[in-house]
Structure formats: structure tokens, C-alpha cells
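STRUCTURE:
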């Protein structure tokens, strides 16, 4: 518990560093509030088949967005992006706590119908990308970048067996991420770090990886 709290504090401090140097206290408060909200909502959750607290993922997404130069509302959405999908958080709750802007960003990163099959859900996600705003795409890209980096780290450590953790295997995951990158390529001018997602994807799913 002590180590987990220390990790939360460390990541929170990194995300907030930029804003502690500013007198814009309201901006810092939005990010700090989102950090605390996400930590509470994801309490007791872990990354797939690991003992790593799930909150490390939204924290990392927030850090990526901060590193890419995005503002407090988009960083907050990155911290909160899985709260509706993976916790009991409601639209009304996010609207009340963080406002319509953050809610819309989180909604854009949330699968809307969990009753569908994996293939149907992922295809619906891909199909809807063309209708997103550049800001919404940024949150989605940061999420996918960290997912791919996490998979790559586990693959290096544990080997190909890690694909059994997921609802679908390597081939299906490759299709999904390839489809995402293809669908969001038109946003590259407004969201330049899409290129980083493409590089992460190519590295993970390369035929020559590990040879």
C-alpha cells in the first residue's frame, strides 16, 4: 500500500509540475481533481494479468498529453478516459465534477455498447474516428500509445504468451491498431504525435520483432 501511494504521488507530481510553475491555480486544480477522482474510481483494479494498479495507465496517458503540450482540460480527460468504461462513473457525475468539455472528451474515448462482441465494438470504434475532433483524437492516441508500450514491455519480459491475456490474440490486435492508425491519419497535421502511435504499432507487430 505504501509503495502504491508513493507511485500515485510521484506520477501526480510529474503531471502537475508544469502547472505548479504557473499562477493559474484553477488549471492545476482541474488536473489535481481529475487525478484524485480517477485514483478513487480505479481503486482495486489492475492491468491485465498483472499486479500493476490500473491507475498507472490513466496517469501515463495524462503524462503523455502533458508532454505533447496539451492544456489542462485535455490532460484531465486523459486521466479520466476509462472512468465511464471501467468504473461506475456516470455522464452526470463527470458533467457535474468536470464540465461538458471534459465529459465530451471522455465520451469520445469510451466504447458505448459493451453488449456487442469484441469485433463489433472495435469496428464501431474505428468507424467513429473520422467524426472526432482533433482534441478527442489526442486523448485516444495517448491511450493507445501507452497500451502499446505496456504490451511491448510485457512482451519483452514474458514472450508471446502475453497475448493470451487479451480477449483476442496478436493477429486481431494488429488489425485493430492498424485500423485505428489508418482511420486517424487525416488528423496528423492537427495531432502530430499520431506518428508516435504509428511507430509504436510498427515496432510491436513487426514480422522481424525479436529476431
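SEQUENCE:
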Amino acid at each position: 500500500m505504501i509503495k502504491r501511494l508513493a507511485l500515485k504521488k510521484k506520477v501526480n507530481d510529474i503531471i502537475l509540475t508544469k502547472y505548479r510553475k504557473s499562477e493559474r491555480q484553477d488549471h492545476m486544480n482541474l488536473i489535481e481533481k481529475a487525478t484524485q477522482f480517477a485514483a478513487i474510481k480505479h481503486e482495486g483494479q489492475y492491468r491485465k494479468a498483472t499486479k500493476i494498479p490500473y491507475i498507472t495507465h490513466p496517469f501515463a496517458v495524462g503524462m503523455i498529453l502533458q508532454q505533447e503540450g496539451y492544456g489542462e482540460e485535455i490532460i484531465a480527460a486523459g486521466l479520466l478516459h476509462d472512468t465511464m468504461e471501467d468504473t461506475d462513473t456516470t455522464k452526470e457525475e463527470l458533467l457535474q465534477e468536470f464540465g461538458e468539455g471534459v465529459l465530451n472528451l471522455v465520451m469520445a474515448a469510451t466504447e458505448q455498447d459493451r453488449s456487442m462482441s469484441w469485433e463489433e465494438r472495435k469496428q464501431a470504434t474505428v468507424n467513429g474516428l473520422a467524426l472526432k475532433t482533433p482534441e478527442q483524437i489526442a486523448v485516444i492516441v495517448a491511450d493507445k500509445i501507452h497500451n502499446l508500450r505496456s504490451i511491448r514491455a510485457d512482451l519483452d519480459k514474458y514472450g508471446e504468451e502475453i497475448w493470451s491475456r487479451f480477449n483476442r490474440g496478436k493477429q486481431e490486435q494488429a488489425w485493430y491498431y492498424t485500423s485505428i492508425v489508418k482511420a486517424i491519419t487525416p488528423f496528423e497535421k492537427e495531432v502530430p504525435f499520431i506518428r508516435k502511435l504509428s511507430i509504436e504499432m510498427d515496432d510491436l507487430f513487426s514480422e522481424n520483432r525479436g529476431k
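REMARK: Residues 79 and 133 are 18 Å apart (CA to CA).
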